[in-house]
Amino acid sequence: MEQPVLLEMRGISKEFPGVKALDGVNLTVRAGTVHALMGENGAGKSTLMKCLFGIYRKDAGQIFLEGKEIDFKNSKDALENGVAMVHQELNQALTRSVQDNLWLGRYPKLAGIMVDEAGMAKRTKEIFETLDVHVNPRTIMSTMPVSQRQMVEIAKAVSYDAKIVVFDEPTSSLTEAEVEHLFRIIDMLKKKGCGIIYISHKMEEILRISDDVTIMRDGQWVATRPAGELTMDEIIRLMVGRE
Fold this sequence. Notes:
Layout lengths: L4 E12 L2 E12 L2 E6 L6 H8 L7 E6 L2 E3 L4 H6 L2 E4 L11 H6 L5 E2 L3 E2 L1 H15 L14 H14 L4 E5 L7 H16 L3 E5 L3 H7 L2 E6 L2 E7 L5 H9 L3
Parallel strand pairs: 3-10, 3-11, 6-9, 9-10
Antiparallel strand pairs: 1-2, 1-4, 4-5, 7-8, 11-12
């Protein structure tokens, strides 16, 4: 049985002065699947995601989340509507604690005025346990390695109960054991019915964890195929447009 469509991006176009960054790109992500987004640098993958998150205003096209048309104004708007992104360049408040980063801008309150520190600690602990993340919530962000900071970002997406989670080159600074842990978490999100958009240059990863693969080239949609039907050679050919 086909999983229901969670996210649909139709005919997305974006121009910058002198550059057509996106030209009528389509992307359909189904619930409970990993959808890989591939293409050479400059193919438009990140621009497409920035249009989803309202970081860029799209010039044309429509975006539907669970069948409703959406147009986020910024990434906070996206997060609050269940669309989260785990960036390469983590934009975190490095001088604050892990827990602060998780709840920044939406602290659970007691009687609507005081921050519910105990409730926050409890909820943080629950999320970390679910994800098998071993990080002390009181640790200051800047003192942690990138891999752990990334886990905090993933925990944040989970805490917002995100329906769509975008991973942008998530394994570029991870060890092999950390990559395995990330894949276990992605699997868990899949089982919860999340749609995962996975941007990576690493072919073997893509073929291992993806259900569907969309390939972009020069700001255009080239192909979307089930991952099981693709070989590395085929992906490369579609990405560069020649053997």
